[in-house]
Each structure stands twice: as C-alpha cells, then as structure tokens.
Amino acid sequence: MLTKESTGNAYDVAMENFEAAANTMGLDEDTRQMIKCPERVLTVSVPVRMDDGHIHRFEGYRVQHSTARGPAKGGIRFHPQVTLDEVKALATWMTWKCAVVNIPFGGGKGGVTCDPKHMSRGELERMTRRYTSAILPLIGPEQDIPAPDVYTNSQTMAWIMDTYSMTKGYSIAGVVTGKPISLGGSLGRNEATGRGVFYTVECACDHLKMPLKGAAIAVQGFGNAGSVAAQLFHEAGAKIVAVSDSTGSIYNRNGLNIPELIQMKTMCGHVEGFPESEPILPHELIGIDCDILVPAALENMIREDNAGTVKARIVAEAANGPVTPGADRILESKGCFVIPDILCNAGGVTVSYFEWVQDEQHLFWEAQDIYKRLERVMKTSFRDVLKIHMERKTPMRIAANILGIGRVAEAVQIRGIYP
To answer: 37-176: which CATH architecture?
Structure first.
C-alpha cells in the first residue's frame, strides 16, 4: 500500500529538494523568491480532428522556469499522466540541470495529456502541430527550445520545427533539438542521455573503488536512455541482470544478452518473453540483488515503501525525479551512493546544447568530437558535485542542487531586477 509520501506531487518534491539545498547553502530569502518559481506557465487547449472525424480536445502545457542564464530548454512529453505540476517540476529540475553542467540555458518543459500508444501517426501529427501553434508565443531559438521526452522523438521535433518555420516563412532549425540529422539534428543526440549515465557511473565506480567490469546492473525502464546505458555497460564488461519496460520485467542472474534484447525491443516493442530470461514482478526489480540500479522510467519509482529493499551500492538516476525525498533519506541511511538526476541524465541536454550551437553556426561536428565533448562535460560536472559532497559532507543530491542553484542565484543577483 502506498504511503502519502510515496504518491507525492512531483512539484512538491522539487520544492522540497530546492529548500533542502537552499538551507544548506544559506541562500537568502530574496534570492529564493526570485529563482524558485516558474517565470511563465502556459496551459493550452489542443483540439484535434481524429481519424474517425470527431474532435477530441487535449490539454497541453509549456512552462519556462528560468531564463536567467539563457533560453529555456526542455523536452515535450506525450503521456496520459501529464499534469501541470509534473511539467512545472520537470522545468524546475531542468534549470538546475543546465546549471550543473554549466551550459547557457535555463529550464523549460512541455507536455500534452494524451495516450500516444492509441493514436495513429496522422492523429499524432495533427496534435503536435496544433500544440505547436498554441505555444508559438513562447518558443524560438533565442527564447525557448523544446526537445524530445517521454513518447516523443525526432519525428515529433521535425513536425514542431516545420510548423514553427512555416509561420516565419523560412526554415529555423534551432527552434528544437533532437531533430532528424537531415533537418539539422546532431550526431550522438539519440544516445546522449544514456552515454551521460554511463560516464557518471564510471566516475562513481572510480570514487568508490568499485570495478565496473563484472558489476551486476538492473535497469528499470528500457527506453532510449535505459537501453543505451545498458549497451554501454554491457560493452564495458558489466552484467545486466534485470530490465523492465511498460510491458513487464525480466531477470537473468548470469546477465542478459543486451544486443539481442535491444533488437527484440526494436522489432517487437517489448522485453517480455525474451529468451534465457525469467519474468519477475515489476516491483521486484527495485530490490534485485545488484551492484548498480538504474531507474530510467518515470518519477517516484523509488519511494519510502520500497526504498528499504534496494540492495544496490549505486543508484544512477537516468529518469527525472525517480526517488522521492523520503526514499532519499532511506537510501542515505543504507550507505547507497545516489547519482542525482540533474547530474546523471544531463547528457541529453548537453548534446542538445551542442546541436543548438551547430544549428546556429551552420557547422556540424563529427560523432567522436561530440562524444569527447560530452565525456568532458559530464566528468567535470561529476567532479564539481563530488567536491561539494565531500567538503560539505552532504548527500550528492543536495550537492548537485547547491551547484546548480548557486549558479542560477549568481546570474540573478548580477542581472538584478528590471524595472
């Protein structure tokens, strides 16, 4: 049975984490009032003509949490559980995330409450274009740059880019990132989040003097980030003993064949029934006997009611907000090393920044250049957060928030208030 805390509102969690970091760093009340709340919140009605001819109205959101350090940046998700508070929370985390990896963006996020698994391609395109038209006043390469998120992809970004460009009269590639390569997308973007997870786990293993080769890893959420990270761990000699997606969870204590699993997922759309694996209940994956746990699904997956079952030495947050504050305290008491989301999964927004820079310069980089730049950014950021963690003797999440919040606070204080 879920506790009150375990079903916590995502925005409340974001605010609780903010206050914990702000208190630790002694942030003054005036600065808190300037940076904690979103700058702009837009709710839009999205009427769409469905394939059977009737009109269905969806609800969409776009939130700009901060533009103190640059244009707002953040994904758009299509999911039946999207709410305004969730989008506000994700935009808030994006602000701190961009600041942690020290790229010149602020935080934004968007979403449409829908079930894309039960919509045709034509319905998805019409909904995407109508939603884009509704948020046009907020987006643009100099003010707010969307990207893919849950159940959106490069095709979604192509529709947004085209819709925006048609209203301007010429092509504007920099309005979104995560686009197809043929429309100004960047090499390395699709695997960027998973690569960032891999690089930060490498750093954590070095810090803990724990070999990655031979480590047992469980991945909750075998989507883009989870599957890419699993592939890289597999190539590094780790054993992926359990994975899950929305259809089910599978386990093999000797390690799953990740290349074949990715091929099956690509062809069939699920991991359930994979050969040489046994099914487990979804909630069992959290407590699997492993060295590294990678929550790569949705928010609030590790809560007070299940955090006690976690056996992993490292929890690498590939998803946004997968651990609630109550669960954080339990993991801390168990000696678990948590790589917080705003650091661990920042590879996606980092390569999004690289894509935006390439679009603005009309000059594109080789994949190996992007990987090297990403590795440098992720490992430098990990060291920056670890230094605060060690010096202040504070959890890694608070350390990451101190770094991100501190950089945003500095920008706001230097800029001042106008008028």
So the answer is: 3-Layer(aba) Sandwich (3.40)
Are domains 37-176 and 192-339 of this chain identical in fold? yes
pLDDT at site 247:
86
C-alpha span between 366 and 350 (Å, rounded) = 16
pTM over 0.85: yes
pLDDT (tens digit per residue) in 189-237: 989 999 999 999 999 999 999 999 999 999 999 988 999 999 999 999 9
109 as an active site residue: the answer is: yes
Q: Residue 406 is encoded by which pair of tokens?
A: 């501190």
pLDDT tens column, 76-96: 999 999 999 999 999 999 999
Neighbouring-strand partners of residue 148: 76
**Among the options 109, 179, 239, 265, which is catalytic?**
109
Q: Select from 376, 354, 375, 374 the least CA-distant residue to 365.
A: 354
Tell me if the domain spanning 192-339 has CATH number 3.30.70.20. no
User: Domains of the chain: which residue ranges?
Assistant: 37-176, 192-339
- Both tokens of 310, joined, read 């976690």
Radius of gyration of the chain (CA): 20
Query: Left (φ > 0), alpha (ψ -120 to 50) or beta: where does 186 sit?
Result: beta
Q: Compute the distance between CA of residue 290 and CA of residue 54 in angstroms, rounded to an integer.
A: 50
> Average pLDDT over the chain, rounded to whole?
94
144-153, 256-265, 296-305, 360-369: least confident range? 296-305
**CA 194 – CA 347 distance, rounded (Å):** 7
